[in-house]
Amino acid sequence: MRSPMKQGDLDGLCGLYALVNAASYLSIKAGRPLRGKERLELFQRMALRLYHCLEQRRSRRRDPDSATPSIAFLWEGTSVRDLPPMLDELRGFLLEKAEIRIERSQPLLGNSRPQSLEQFWSRLRESLDQGRGKSVAIVGYTWHSDGGEEGHWTCVKAMTERRMIRLDSVKGKFLLRSRVTVRGPTRRHPYKLAPHDVYLLGLES
Description:
Blueprint: H1 14-29, H2 36-59, H3 73-76, H4 83-98, E1 102-105, H5 117-130, E2 135-145, E3 148-159, E4 163-167, E5 174-176, E6 180-181, E7 191-203
Parallel strand pairs: 6-7
Antiparallel strand pairs: 1-7, 2-3, 2-7, 3-4, 4-5
């Protein structure tokens, strides 16, 4: 085998990693950083919370035995519908372990829903700037790869006019504005952002 498989080649756990990275960053900003064992425990608790939530959804289907197995999130990844139970677990965990209170919102929905990349970028950047370094955004995006669509969740700690500065599990530190779109992806703009795939997490003031 010329090149061994890497973490992420077969699994779809980027959503869990994005949330653990968010919790780690916010705990540092709160002056009560999580230890390695606590990060592992958070990862486990969010995975179990999601699994039980998916099991409940599966049991409500007319033919649950034919539905996708609940454990499939390990390789298929997570959707925006899967984030709320994991976010609930994250907030409860930080409150229990470190007395850190987290506010959560979806800043690009409702009257703030952007109609262009310029609006998306400026409104999310403004939301992060209002947190004064004590907030992060969980951002999902898709791109086309090998004839199919791939998705990824990342944790964004800051934005400039041209870059998202990320705490990412596998894909590098920056996502460049020049490479993203809110419309159909192209070779020049392969990464597609969507307003509903954005959660803002911040330390409660």
